TrEMBL record:
PROSITE patterns: RECOMBINASE_DNA_BIND, RECOMBINASES_3. Signal peptide: none annotated. SUPFAM superfamilies: Resolvase-like. Residues 158-276 form the Recombinase domain. This is Site-specific DNA recombinase. One of its GO terms (molecular function) is DNA binding. InterPro entries: DNA_bind_recomb_sf, DNA_bind_recombinase_dom, Resolv_N, Resolvase-like_N_sf, SSR_resolvase. Residues 1-151 form the Resolvase/invertase-type recombinase catalytic domain. It holds the Pfam family Resolvase.
Length: 310
């Protein structure tokens, strides 16, 4: 049995082969190893775009279930130990489970047999894989912090903007530009909410009617924004041209979508609605959210009387 994995979807779909370069290379190497062991490959499990920091990977879990169900799998063959796990605890637990099923883990590039030397090498390689994963995360965080300090956007830009790449002075640079389809809707939302005549719910419904959706991705279809996302959007300082990372605010290089004055007015309306406990109702009344019962303290609600109670 063969297990293959790549960490990101960017590694999939390169060239004319939908699996890119890495997965076919891993598979070919594993098949050669199986042939050298005179073993028949009965199943191949492939995780595309899955991190080994956790064992909670769809195909990996299916592979373990397959091993348990069959009970007669001699080998699980993989390209390198870091395809298997980048966490020593997961590595030890899964190795115990494989051994309980009579299955041997075989690495194409590392000699991790059942000898004391092979087990020592496996332990060392598992430790190196965990170190690499944690060190990569630390270095990545440092890189994102430096990017934010320089005005860049660490991660995905909010709705109204697009992450893209542009060639500048002969090199490709990641930049953020205004989304021509969504930016006008976000500007309109700020302007309308600043009037104080809209609630989050009514604004959300109108944005949906106007056709605003989230940016689609490979795994997510475009959907209308939820009220909670609209509320977060109206209080997001990114639209002022700011970048916030780890609680620190920096001047961003991206184009602001709203003015300081407009943003301030929107925050005042948000605070006013929050303080008055205004609910997202369709009935308008100038005392709505402001009148409370003297006996129990409950907020009084407006209702439309019908029939004999009119």
């Amino acid at each position: 049995m063969i297990y293959l994995r790549v960490s990101t979807l960017k590694q999939v779909g390169r060239d004319t082969d939908p699996d890119g370069y890495s997965l076919p290379a891993q598979r070919e190497a594993c098949e050669r190893k199986a042939a050298s062991l005179d073993a028949e490959v009965v199943e191949v499990f492939v995780d595309r775009g899955e991190s080994a920091k956790t064992a909670d990977r769809p195909e990996f879990q299916r592979m373990l279930s397959f091993v348990r169900a069959q009970g007669d799998i001699d080998y699980v063959i993989l390209d390198k130990v870091d395809r298997f796990a980048r966490n020593r605890r997961d590595d030890a637990n899964i190795m115990f489970e494989l051994k309980s099923s009579g299955t041997t883990l075989v690495s194409v590039k590392e000699n991790i047999d059942e000898t004391p030397a092979g087990q020592l090498l496996h332990a060392i390689m598992a430790g190196i894989a965990e170190f690499y994963s944690k060190n990569l995360a630390t270095e990545s965080m440092k890189g994102m912090a430096q990017k934010a300090k320089m005005g860049g956007t660490p991660g995905k830009a909010p709705v109204g903007y697009l992450n893209t790449r542009q060639r500048i002075e002969g090199r490709e640079v990641a930049i953020v530009i205004l989304d021509p389809d969504r930016a006008p809707h976000i500007q309109w939302a700020f302007e309308m909410y600043a009037t104080g005549e809209w609630t989050i719910r009514s604004l959300t419904d109108e944005l949906e009617r106007r056709g605003l959706t989230a940016v689609p991705s490979r795994s997510r279809v475009p959907k209308p924004l939820s009220p909670s996302i609209v509320a977060r959007t109206l209080s997001h300082r990114y639209y002022l041209g700011k970048v916030i990372f780890k609680g620190q605010e920096y001047e961003g290089r991206h184009q602001p979508l709203v003015s300081e004055d407009l943003f301030t007015r929107v925050q005042e309306v948000l605070r006013a609605h929050d303080q008055s406990s205004e609910k997202q109702r369709i009935y308008n009344h100038y005392l709505k959210g402001s009148v409370f019962c003297a006996a129990c303290g409950s907020r009084l609600c407006i209702t439309n009387a019908k029939g004999q109670y009119m």
